[in-house]
């Protein structure tokens, strides 16, 4: 069994809103994040992700519960392991007139780190060739890369990223996604907080899904989404006739444009065999599995959470101070 890098038990956070309303941001949350790979911390905006991360980092005080990083209780023993943790929770303050490399060099010097760490971090986030440009001229994606490079200067064993693709265009999202995947493959444990479930599914080995501050599900992505399927998308030259044949054989069939969705199938070869016997040959046979967003929507019946995922509604999470 892998060592747990992050553990929480019965974690709870309560606070008073500016209008005096009692708010429970995190409700008895228990997390277990093993060492290695990319672990998704998923849920809609306002579900308690940022509040949980801030508590883990000692930036907010828990109302109740226990937290451990690398087996050490936090925040009490956080100074013992803080050098093993890197985090991008809010956009760091870089000097606009300085180059990316100069900003990192100043940061490394202030913490007593060797200059060779700067070059390594720049290469690790893919900013080689751009490090001599002034920070003020960086795109949002490059600024996000530089922020991650700053956390990598101390070669952390755990990297916590809170919504790292917010505001990025599709190309920027792809670049950050590829970089996160490479970091996870390199041996760094990455906790990736996001509300974009379909996007995160492409990089995460395992996930913990929360809603309204509660843990809804946790485990390997394949296990949560289902490694097997009883539904297939089928492409044939004559979908109308194929649908008639498959329905007659007892399958549930729906037309989807020029393709068919066939349900209740034990094995995909049952479809190809039946159609081939009638001189109809399959050009596409794709198993249909649920994605993480589908899994999330099945886990909760809260309409407000459904809306948050479906239309991208933004509900600000509490950013409380200790």
TrEMBL record:
Keywords: ATP-binding, Nucleotide-binding, Transport. The lineage of its organism: Bacteria, Bacillati, Actinomycetota, Actinomycetes, Propionibacteriales. PROSITE patterns: ABC_TRANSPORTER_1, ABC_TRANSPORTER_2. Belongs to the ABC transporter superfamily. This is Efflux ABC transporter, ATP-binding protein. Residues 6-237 form the ABC transporter domain. Transmembrane segments: none annotated. It comes from the Bacteria. Pfam families: ABC_tran (PF00005). PANTHER family: ABC TRANSPORTER, ATP-BINDING PROTEIN. GO terms for molecular function: ATP binding; ATP hydrolysis activity.
């Amino acid at each position: 069994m892998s060592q747990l890098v992050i553990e929480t038990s019965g974690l709870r956070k309560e606070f008073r809103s500016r209008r005096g309303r009692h708010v429970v941001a995190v409700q008895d949350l228990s997390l277990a994040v093993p060492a290695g790979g990319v672990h998704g911390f998923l849920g809609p905006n306002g579900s308690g992700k940022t509040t949980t991360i801030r508590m883990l980092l000692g930036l907010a005080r828990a109302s109740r519960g226990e937290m451990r990083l690398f087996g050490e209780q936090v925040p009490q023993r956080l100074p013992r392991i803080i050098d093993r943790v890197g985090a991008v929770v809010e956009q760091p303050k870089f000097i606009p007139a300085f180059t990316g490399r100069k900003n990192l060099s100043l940061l490394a010097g202030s913490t007593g780190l060797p200059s060779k760490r700067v070059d390594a971090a720049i290469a690790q986030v893919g900013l080689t060739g751009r490090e001599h440009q002034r920070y003020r001229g960086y795109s949002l994606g490059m600024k996000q890369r530089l922020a991650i490079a700053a956390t990598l200067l101390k070669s952390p064993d755990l990297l916590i990223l809170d919504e790292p693709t917010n505001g990025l265009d599709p190309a920027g999202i792809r670049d950050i996604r590829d970089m996160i995947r490479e970091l996870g493959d390199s041996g760094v444990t990455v906790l990736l907080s996001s509300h974009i479930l379909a996007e995160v599914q492409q990089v995460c080995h395992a996930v913990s899904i929360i809603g309204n501050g509660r843990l809804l599900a946790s485990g390997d992505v394949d296990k949560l989404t289902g490694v097997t399927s009883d539904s297939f998308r089928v492409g044939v030259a004559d979908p109308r006739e194929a649908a008639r044949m498959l329905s007659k054989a007892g399958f549930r069939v729906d037309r989807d444009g020029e393709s068919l969705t066939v349900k209740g199938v034990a094995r995909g070869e049952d479809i190809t065999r039946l159609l081939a016997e009638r001189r109809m040959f399959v050009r596409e046979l794709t198993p249909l599995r649920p994605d993480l967003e589908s899994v999330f929507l099945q886990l909760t019946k809260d309409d407000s959470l459904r809306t948050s995922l479906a239309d991208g509604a933004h509900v600000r999470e509490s950013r409380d101070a200790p």
